[in-house]
Amino acid sequence: MKDAFIIKKTLNNNVVIATHPSYDEVVLIGKGIGFRKNPGDVIEREAVEKCFTLIDKKEQEQYKELVSQVDERLIELMNDAVRLIQKRFQTPLSEHIHVALTDHVGFALKRLEQGLEFNNPFLIETQALYEKEFEVAEEIVDMISNRLGVELPASETGFIALHIHSAVTRRHLAEIRQHSRLIMKLISIVESSLNIRIDRKSLDYLRMITHLRYAIERTMRGEDVSIPEGFEELLQTQYPVCYNLAWKLAKVMERTLNRPVHPAEISYLTLHLQRLTHKN
Q1: Hey, which end of the chain has fewer CB within 10 Å, N or C?
Q2: Which residues make Cβ contacts (< 8 Å) with residue 125, sequence separation at least 6?
Q3: pLDDT tens-digit profile of 32-66?
Q4: Quick check: helix, strand or coil at residue 9?
Q5: φ, ψ for residue 151 (rounded to 5)?
Q6: What is the CATH number assigned to the segment(s) 1-53?
Q7: What is the CATH number of domain 189-200+215-279?
Protein backbone atom coordinates (compact mmCIF):
# COMPACT_ATOMS: atom_id res chain seq x y z
CA MET A 1 0.00 0.00 0.00
CA LYS A 2 2.94 2.35 0.60
CA ASP A 3 3.68 2.31 -3.17
CA ALA A 4 0.04 2.95 -4.09
CA PHE A 5 -1.36 6.21 -5.45
CA ILE A 6 -4.54 7.88 -4.21
CA ILE A 7 -6.71 9.43 -6.91
CA LYS A 8 -7.27 13.13 -6.50
CA LYS A 9 -9.05 13.78 -9.79
CA THR A 10 -9.92 11.70 -12.86
CA LEU A 11 -9.20 13.62 -16.06
CA ASN A 12 -10.36 10.85 -18.39
CA ASN A 13 -10.23 7.07 -18.70
CA ASN A 14 -6.49 7.07 -19.24
CA VAL A 15 -5.21 10.01 -17.17
CA VAL A 16 -5.66 10.83 -13.49
CA ILE A 17 -4.20 13.24 -10.98
CA ALA A 18 -3.09 11.40 -7.86
CA THR A 19 -1.10 11.84 -4.68
CA HIS A 20 1.76 9.73 -3.37
CA PRO A 21 3.58 10.00 -0.02
CA SER A 22 6.97 10.24 -1.76
CA TYR A 23 6.13 12.25 -4.90
CA ASP A 24 3.31 14.54 -3.73
CA GLU A 25 0.94 15.30 -6.64
CA VAL A 26 1.54 13.38 -9.86
CA VAL A 27 -0.03 12.72 -13.23
CA LEU A 28 -0.64 9.02 -13.89
CA ILE A 29 -1.13 7.62 -17.38
CA GLY A 30 -2.31 4.14 -18.26
CA LYS A 31 -4.92 2.54 -20.44
CA GLY A 32 -8.20 2.46 -18.51
CA ILE A 33 -6.50 3.73 -15.38
CA GLY A 34 -9.28 6.23 -14.67
CA PHE A 35 -12.24 4.11 -15.81
CA ARG A 36 -14.99 4.23 -13.16
CA LYS A 37 -12.53 5.60 -10.63
CA ASN A 38 -13.40 8.25 -8.04
CA PRO A 39 -11.37 10.58 -5.79
CA GLY A 40 -9.92 8.57 -2.91
CA ASP A 41 -9.68 5.32 -4.87
CA VAL A 42 -6.35 3.50 -4.82
CA ILE A 43 -4.23 2.74 -7.88
CA GLU A 44 -1.46 0.20 -7.51
CA ARG A 45 1.92 0.95 -9.05
CA GLU A 46 1.60 -2.04 -11.43
CA ALA A 47 -1.33 -0.37 -13.22
CA VAL A 48 0.66 2.78 -13.97
CA GLU A 49 2.31 3.03 -17.39
CA LYS A 50 3.69 6.53 -16.92
CA CYS A 51 4.04 8.73 -13.87
CA PHE A 52 5.31 12.28 -14.01
CA THR A 53 5.24 15.37 -11.90
CA LEU A 54 4.53 18.83 -13.18
CA ILE A 55 6.41 20.88 -10.61
CA ASP A 56 5.46 24.17 -12.23
CA LYS A 57 1.93 24.82 -10.98
CA LYS A 58 1.08 26.84 -14.10
CA GLU A 59 2.11 23.97 -16.35
CA GLN A 60 0.21 21.53 -14.16
CA GLU A 61 -2.98 23.53 -14.56
CA GLN A 62 -2.37 23.83 -18.30
CA TYR A 63 -2.15 20.07 -18.65
CA LYS A 64 -5.31 19.50 -16.61
CA GLU A 65 -7.18 22.03 -18.73
CA LEU A 66 -5.78 20.59 -21.94
CA VAL A 67 -6.79 17.02 -21.12
CA SER A 68 -10.36 18.14 -20.44
CA GLN A 69 -10.59 19.86 -23.83
CA VAL A 70 -9.15 17.36 -26.31
CA ASP A 71 -10.25 13.95 -27.55
CA GLU A 72 -9.26 11.07 -25.27
CA ARG A 73 -7.86 9.23 -28.27
CA LEU A 74 -5.44 12.09 -28.86
CA ILE A 75 -4.29 12.06 -25.22
CA GLU A 76 -3.60 8.33 -25.46
CA LEU A 77 -1.88 8.75 -28.83
CA MET A 78 0.33 11.59 -27.59
CA ASN A 79 1.33 9.59 -24.54
CA ASP A 80 2.35 6.78 -26.89
CA ALA A 81 4.24 9.35 -28.99
CA VAL A 82 6.18 10.56 -25.95
CA ARG A 83 7.06 6.95 -25.10
CA LEU A 84 8.27 6.50 -28.68
CA ILE A 85 10.48 9.59 -28.41
CA GLN A 86 11.88 8.31 -25.12
CA LYS A 87 12.61 4.91 -26.69
CA ARG A 88 14.30 6.35 -29.78
CA PHE A 89 16.55 8.79 -27.92
CA GLN A 90 17.13 6.89 -24.67
CA THR A 91 17.43 10.11 -22.69
CA PRO A 92 15.26 11.93 -20.12
CA LEU A 93 12.85 14.32 -21.81
CA SER A 94 11.61 17.68 -20.67
CA GLU A 95 8.20 16.92 -19.20
CA HIS A 96 6.81 19.98 -20.93
CA ILE A 97 6.59 17.76 -24.03
CA HIS A 98 3.31 16.34 -22.67
CA VAL A 99 1.68 19.77 -22.75
CA ALA A 100 3.49 21.20 -25.77
CA LEU A 101 3.11 18.28 -28.19
CA THR A 102 -0.49 17.49 -27.25
CA ASP A 103 -1.48 21.14 -27.56
CA HIS A 104 0.31 21.57 -30.88
CA VAL A 105 -1.11 18.45 -32.53
CA GLY A 106 -4.60 19.15 -31.18
CA PHE A 107 -4.47 22.65 -32.65
CA ALA A 108 -3.09 21.32 -35.96
CA LEU A 109 -6.01 18.88 -36.23
CA LYS A 110 -8.50 21.70 -35.63
CA ARG A 111 -6.83 23.84 -38.30
CA LEU A 112 -7.08 21.00 -40.83
CA GLU A 113 -10.79 20.61 -40.05
CA GLN A 114 -11.18 24.28 -40.94
CA GLY A 115 -9.17 23.86 -44.14
CA LEU A 116 -6.21 25.85 -42.81
CA GLU A 117 -2.55 24.91 -43.08
CA PHE A 118 0.39 26.78 -41.58
CA ASN A 119 3.44 27.32 -43.76
CA ASN A 120 6.66 26.05 -42.21
CA PRO A 121 9.54 28.26 -43.38
CA PHE A 122 12.08 26.05 -41.58
CA LEU A 123 11.01 22.70 -43.07
CA ILE A 124 14.08 21.97 -45.21
CA GLU A 125 16.42 23.27 -42.52
CA THR A 126 14.67 21.27 -39.79
CA GLN A 127 14.96 18.05 -41.78
CA ALA A 128 18.65 18.70 -42.42
CA LEU A 129 19.63 19.93 -38.95
CA TYR A 130 17.58 17.53 -36.83
CA GLU A 131 17.55 14.38 -38.93
CA LYS A 132 16.75 11.89 -36.18
CA GLU A 133 14.07 14.13 -34.67
CA PHE A 134 12.50 14.48 -38.11
CA GLU A 135 12.47 10.69 -38.61
CA VAL A 136 10.70 10.20 -35.26
CA ALA A 137 8.27 13.00 -36.16
CA GLU A 138 7.44 11.09 -39.36
CA GLU A 139 6.67 8.02 -37.22
CA ILE A 140 4.34 10.10 -35.05
CA VAL A 141 2.60 11.53 -38.13
CA ASP A 142 2.08 7.93 -39.34
CA MET A 143 0.60 7.03 -35.92
CA ILE A 144 -1.84 9.94 -36.24
CA SER A 145 -2.79 8.82 -39.74
CA ASN A 146 -3.31 5.18 -38.74
CA ARG A 147 -5.22 5.81 -35.52
CA LEU A 148 -7.13 9.02 -36.21
CA GLY A 149 -7.43 8.80 -39.99
CA VAL A 150 -5.95 12.28 -40.48
CA GLU A 151 -3.07 13.00 -42.85
CA LEU A 152 -0.94 15.80 -41.46
CA PRO A 153 1.02 17.83 -44.06
CA ALA A 154 4.82 17.80 -44.23
CA SER A 155 4.92 21.21 -42.55
CA GLU A 156 3.56 19.62 -39.37
CA THR A 157 6.28 16.95 -39.44
CA GLY A 158 8.78 19.78 -39.19
CA PHE A 159 6.97 21.44 -36.31
CA ILE A 160 6.73 18.15 -34.40
CA ALA A 161 10.46 17.54 -35.00
CA LEU A 162 11.23 20.91 -33.36
CA HIS A 163 9.10 19.95 -30.34
CA ILE A 164 11.03 16.67 -30.10
CA HIS A 165 14.38 18.49 -30.29
CA SER A 166 13.18 20.88 -27.60
CA ALA A 167 12.25 17.99 -25.30
CA VAL A 168 15.47 16.05 -25.94
CA THR A 169 17.81 19.03 -25.47
CA ARG A 170 15.64 20.69 -22.78
CA ARG A 171 15.88 23.95 -24.73
CA HIS A 172 12.93 26.28 -25.13
CA LEU A 173 11.18 26.07 -28.47
CA ALA A 174 11.45 29.85 -28.81
CA GLU A 175 15.25 29.60 -28.64
CA ILE A 176 15.34 26.83 -31.27
CA ARG A 177 13.14 28.88 -33.59
CA GLN A 178 15.30 31.95 -33.01
CA HIS A 179 18.36 29.97 -34.07
CA SER A 180 16.54 28.65 -37.17
CA ARG A 181 15.59 32.19 -38.16
CA LEU A 182 19.17 33.31 -37.58
CA ILE A 183 20.53 30.55 -39.83
CA MET A 184 18.12 31.55 -42.61
CA LYS A 185 19.13 35.19 -42.20
CA LEU A 186 22.82 34.28 -42.42
CA ILE A 187 22.22 32.19 -45.55
CA SER A 188 20.34 35.11 -47.12
CA ILE A 189 23.29 37.42 -46.39
CA VAL A 190 25.68 34.90 -47.96
CA GLU A 191 23.61 34.59 -51.13
CA SER A 192 23.17 38.34 -51.58
CA SER A 193 26.80 39.14 -50.77
CA LEU A 194 28.23 36.49 -53.10
CA ASN A 195 25.46 36.88 -55.69
CA ILE A 196 24.72 33.15 -55.70
CA ARG A 197 21.74 30.89 -55.06
CA ILE A 198 22.50 27.83 -52.95
CA ASP A 199 20.53 24.71 -53.85
CA ARG A 200 18.55 23.87 -50.72
CA LYS A 201 18.88 20.16 -51.43
CA SER A 202 22.62 20.21 -52.06
CA LEU A 203 25.35 18.79 -49.86
CA ASP A 204 26.93 22.26 -49.76
CA TYR A 205 23.78 23.71 -48.21
CA LEU A 206 23.59 20.89 -45.67
CA ARG A 207 27.23 21.44 -44.70
CA MET A 208 26.75 25.20 -44.42
CA ILE A 209 23.66 25.18 -42.22
CA THR A 210 25.05 22.36 -40.08
CA HIS A 211 28.21 24.38 -39.48
CA LEU A 212 26.14 27.47 -38.65
CA ARG A 213 24.03 25.46 -36.22
CA TYR A 214 27.04 24.21 -34.28
CA ALA A 215 28.74 27.61 -34.44
CA ILE A 216 25.63 29.11 -32.83
CA GLU A 217 25.52 26.40 -30.17
CA ARG A 218 29.24 26.82 -29.41
CA THR A 219 28.72 30.56 -29.12
CA MET A 220 25.81 30.08 -26.72
CA ARG A 221 27.99 27.80 -24.57
CA GLY A 222 30.94 30.21 -24.72
CA GLU A 223 33.09 27.35 -26.01
CA ASP A 224 36.69 27.94 -27.09
CA VAL A 225 37.57 26.97 -30.67
CA SER A 226 41.15 26.22 -31.66
CA ILE A 227 42.89 26.85 -34.98
CA PRO A 228 46.53 26.37 -36.08
CA GLU A 229 48.80 29.32 -35.48
CA GLY A 230 48.88 31.70 -38.45
CA PHE A 231 45.80 30.08 -40.02
CA GLU A 232 43.60 33.16 -39.62
CA GLU A 233 46.18 35.46 -41.25
CA LEU A 234 46.60 33.01 -44.13
CA LEU A 235 42.86 32.89 -44.83
CA GLN A 236 42.53 36.66 -44.52
CA THR A 237 45.27 37.09 -47.14
CA GLN A 238 44.21 34.37 -49.58
CA TYR A 239 40.42 34.77 -49.36
CA PRO A 240 39.74 38.40 -48.36
CA VAL A 241 36.17 38.50 -49.75
CA CYS A 242 35.10 35.36 -47.92
CA TYR A 243 36.96 36.37 -44.76
CA ASN A 244 35.23 39.76 -44.65
CA LEU A 245 31.86 38.11 -45.24
CA ALA A 246 32.56 35.60 -42.45
CA TRP A 247 33.40 38.52 -40.16
CA LYS A 248 30.08 40.16 -41.12
CA LEU A 249 28.18 36.94 -40.36
CA ALA A 250 29.88 36.69 -36.98
CA LYS A 251 28.76 40.24 -36.11
CA VAL A 252 25.16 39.39 -37.05
CA MET A 253 25.38 36.32 -34.80
CA GLU A 254 26.75 38.41 -31.92
CA ARG A 255 23.95 40.97 -32.18
CA THR A 256 21.26 38.29 -32.36
CA LEU A 257 22.61 36.01 -29.64
CA ASN A 258 24.03 38.77 -27.45
CA ARG A 259 27.17 36.66 -27.09
CA PRO A 260 30.72 37.15 -28.41
CA VAL A 261 31.65 34.85 -31.30
CA HIS A 262 35.04 33.19 -30.91
CA PRO A 263 37.48 34.58 -33.55
CA ALA A 264 38.28 31.06 -34.77
CA GLU A 265 34.67 30.69 -35.95
CA ILE A 266 35.40 33.35 -38.58
CA SER A 267 38.21 31.23 -39.99
CA TYR A 268 36.07 28.12 -40.32
CA LEU A 269 33.22 30.13 -41.82
CA THR A 270 35.69 31.50 -44.35
CA LEU A 271 36.55 27.97 -45.48
CA HIS A 272 32.87 27.09 -45.99
CA LEU A 273 32.26 30.30 -47.91
CA GLN A 274 35.30 29.72 -50.09
CA ARG A 275 33.99 26.25 -50.97
CA LEU A 276 30.67 27.80 -52.02
CA THR A 277 32.29 30.48 -54.18
CA HIS A 278 34.58 27.92 -55.80
CA LYS A 279 31.66 25.68 -56.76
CA ASN A 280 29.49 28.58 -57.92
Answers
A1: N
A2: 180, 183, 184, 209
A3: 888 888 898 888 888 887 777 766 677 777 877 88
A4: strand
A5: -95, 110
A6: 2.30.24.10
A7: 1.20.58.1950
